TrEMBL record:
Residues 232-253 are annotated as: Disordered. PANTHER family: DNA POLYMERASE KAPPA, DNA REPAIR POLYMERASE UMUC / TRANSFERASE FAMILY MEMBER. It is an enzyme of class 2 (transferase). The gene is dinB. It is found in: Cytoplasm. Mg(2+) binds at D11, D101. This is DNA polymerase IV. The record marks Y16 as: Substrate discrimination. Residues 7-183 form the UmuC domain. Its cofactor is Mg(2+). Pfam families: IMS (PF00817), IMS_C (PF11799), IMS_HHH (PF11798).
């Protein structure tokens, strides 16, 4: 017995663009692009014209000249996400969030309380539409992997249940791009070997797949193609890192502008650390240059910290060391990741223990922003400057 299809993968459709269409009725049914320099999200009407996430704004406008381009509103998206996740957690306590707009839910224990997994999924979709005003696609399957594939196949605004006895019939004819973890580079490698469907990958020996794709990736993808995915829905997993990044378009950026953007990113990440009672040891700077090459710089601090001033000083030093390369090649994206996370209460304080001004300032700023909003107080360097909403900080999939 393979077990039952009790895992749901719920994924909001064209999330940012759908929130914009929800909040502005005149945008409904029209092609909508969120973000100007780089496409952060596109409505299904825009996607039908070839617009894709991360596409340059100029190319997107050429493909869809009648698109309505709107600036991103990250607070609105965050609020919508919280409302949807509240419905998830009201449905089942077993929720594993993947990003701001998708999660796994384990609903096998609800059969005798509220109904079958399919009935739970139907009710979930109805609640998200009625209470939050958004469409959500849901896949139901025995494993997380199959549930995620099913939700993708069901889009937009769909529900697809893959029963255990239909798994091979459903999965094997699909293109290899549907496998979780197959991007453009991996797909191109497989295509060069004549592998275009999941079934063709499954027919290979595991050793052959590993030679094609590398040992770890080959073994993982071959196992998925053969329907092996033992991972349970994890509700207590602690993130190993948190990060945000900001797409900059192709306009030149001065050192002062980059410092302002960096400050905004670090401010938000440090606050997320403190909200989660976490500390970090390593700061990672991620850059994408004008020629689309990428670079990563990192530095590990002594004792782990959640102090904004410490993290910002490290991030600024990393950016300063990259300024010559930025001036030569240009820059289109900047991001920060805080890694080697730990629990704040697991850190042994050093003696003498002092209430330093940095900690006091962080606490006061957090309290003010909690009460009056994130834009209620800013650093002096940000006064009279673009507060950053014209191009948002994008949460990484963690």
């Amino acid at each position: 017995m393979r077990g039952e299809a009790t895992v749901l993968h719920a994924d909001l459709d064209a999330f940012y663009a759908s929130v914009e269409q929800r909040d502005a009725p005149e945008l409904r049914g029209r092609p909508v692009i969120v973000g100007g320099g780089v496409v952060l999200a596109a409505s299904y009407e825009a996607k039908a014209r070839g617009v894709r996430t991360a596409m340059g704004g100029r190319q997107a406008r050429e493909l869809c000249p009648d698109a309505v381009i709107v600036p991103p509103r990250m607070e609105a998206y965050s609020a919508a996400s919280k409302d949807v996740f509240a419905i998830f957690r009201d449905t089942t306590p077993l929720v594993e969030g993947l990003s701001i707009d998708e999660a796994f839910l384990e609903v096998g224990g609800l059969r005798h309380i509220v109904g079958t997994p399919e009935q739970v999924a139907v009710r979930l979709r109805e609640r998200v539409r009625a209470e939050v005003g958004l469409a959500i696609s849901v896949g139901v399957a025995r494993t997380k992997f199959l549930a995620k594939v099913a939700s993708a196949v069901s889009k937009p605004d769909g529900l697809l249940v893959v029963e255990p006895d239909r798994e091979q019939d459903f999965l094997l004819p699909l293109p290899v791009e549907r496998l979780w973890g197959v991007g453009a580079v991996t797909a191109a490698k497989l295509h060069r070997f004549g592998i275009r469907t999941v079934g063709e990958l499954a027919e290979l020996e595991a050793a052959t797949a590993e030679r094609m794709l590398g040992r770890a990736a080959g073994a993982h993808l071959h196992a998925l193609a053969r329907l092996r995915d033992p991972r349970p829905v994890e509700t207590t997993r602690r993130r190993g890192s948190i990060g945000s990044q900001r797409a900059l378009g192709r306009s030149p950026r001065s050192p002062d502008e980059l410092d302002l953007i960096l400050t905004q990113i670090v401010d938000r990440l440090a606050r997320r650390l403190r909200d989660g009672d976490r500390v970090c040891r390593t700061v990672v700077l991620r850059l994408r240059f004008g020629d689309f090459a990428r670079a990563t710089r990192s530095h590990t601090v002594g004792p782990a910290t959640d102090r904004t001033t410490v993290l910002l000083a490290v991030a600024r030093a990393l950016l300063a060391a990259s300024q010559a390369e930025i001036a030569d090649r240009g820059i289109t994206l900047i991001g920060i990741t805080l890694s080697q996370l730990g629990r704040a209460d697991d850190i042994q304080p050093e003696l003498p223990i002092e209430w330093n001004e940095g900690a006091r300032l962080d606490m006061v700023l957090d309290a003010v922003r909690d009460k009056f909003g994130t834009a209620s107080v800013a650093r002096a360097a940000q006064l009279g400057r673009d507060p950053g909403w014209s191009t948002p900080l994008l949460p990484e999939h963690e």
